[in-house]
Design goal:
β6 and β7 form a beta hairpin. Strands 12, 13, 14, 16, 17 and 20 form a six-stranded antiparallel beta sheet that branches. Strands 3-4-10-6-7 form a five-stranded antiparallel beta sheet. Strands 9-8-5-11 form a four-stranded mixed beta sheet. Among the domains are: 145 residues, Domain of unknown function DUF1254 (Immunoglobulin-like); 121 residues, Sandwich (Jelly Rolls), CATH 2.60.120.600. Helix content is 25%, strand content 23%. It is α+β, with helices and mostly antiparallel strands and 469 residues long.
Amino acid sequence: MNNRICQITIFTAALSMHFLVVGCDPKVKEQQTNALSDAQVEDIVRRSYQYVALYNVNNKFAISQGGWNTIKPDTELKDHTLQDIARPNNDTLYIGAMLDLRNEPIILDIPAFDSKYVSLMVTAYDHYVNIPMTTRRGDFAEPEKVLFYTTRTEGYSGEPVEGVDRLFESSGDFVSAVFRVMPHANEPERFERIIKQMQSVGLMTLSEHRGKPAKPVDAIEFPKVGAADADVFGGNLLEVMQFVFNHLTFDLGNDLDQGVLAAYEPLGVVPGKAFDPSIAASFDGDRFRAAAEKVTTKSLALLQDPGNSARLAPLQFQPKGMTDLETLVAVSVIGPIGVPMEEAMYPAIVTSEGKPMNALNDYVIRMRGDGMPPANAFWSATLYDTANGFFIPNDHKKYRVSENGGMKLNADGGIAIHVAAEKPESVPEENWLPINRIDQNLDIILRIYEPDLEKMKTWTAPKAERVEL
């Protein structure tokens, strides 16, 4: 920003960067915003997508379960009424812990789990993904207490705490700590045992852990979430990004961190500053919404290409410094909050004819016994509508084929999955994915948990073959 227009004072503390902007003329901001080229607008959208997507997702989950510093275990699998997140998971149960780490650390009291797959995923508004615990590394065999904090958490600096087994420093003040638990739904007694284990996960403040009352939580006003990410880009992007900037730790040595800060500095949005409503009047939301929709289309096309999907897979859902902007945008578009390839891989199933799958047609997906997904834990195939990424509504509440959802293997250990408006004769109901006979594009995403990464190098996802009606 031109120093003749705005005076900027920069100071750093640890890995945080704070800006104080003094004397900016709103007319100058308006000129700068309107003068942005289409390429600059698209660049801002791309650099913002990870933050907008996670702001929407994390805050919606906090709202739906009663606020921050709450914990909610699932007792049943998600269905088509869930529309808080694109391409949700229907093959594991979740425990969602929404943590506000501003006033004091939060501790999760975690039991042992009788499941062959459990992971704990921690994500702040920056959409960088950390997996501090997973059965893949032998965790969840014994009970543990894990403490969460940030560099801004009041009165705590990362020192050991008696009775706490692990410490986790988050990059953001508002965090989702999400457990994925394979419920073994095909084993009723084990399923009930796992549900009770999930319900026993506890949440407490550090003060409560020490036998004292929890400290009062400072009141805070959150910017409005969007029904979809495009609503934020078209409505209150600057307000959301100002809020996000104020509650994240930025790394002076990270190019992506510095890139997004540099993109917003000319627009008057910098860490440590209160949102200035006067800049909203000069913000052309229609341009940013259109750019966001364009970026969404590009990212969906990118991930539907098997070659590009394989190229991006090692960079998906990684910690800061282990991914790139292209991948962050793509995963934020297709379904925010996932786990890295060591935990799960998400190959898309495309059609054999190279056209989008559409509900005006039926399809069949065939896998031979020697060509099944190479999962060390389990796999699933889940059906969504392309436009929104939601489950297809149906009376059977059947959205995926998997070990948990039920599946019938052929004599050779393979399977044929049928996507159809009516279940074909002789096809097991477990292998049927119902659709509604309307003009609606469809996606099917495989989830391969604890994949055999060596076999994944040569394994190819099956294609959906259109069935003549």
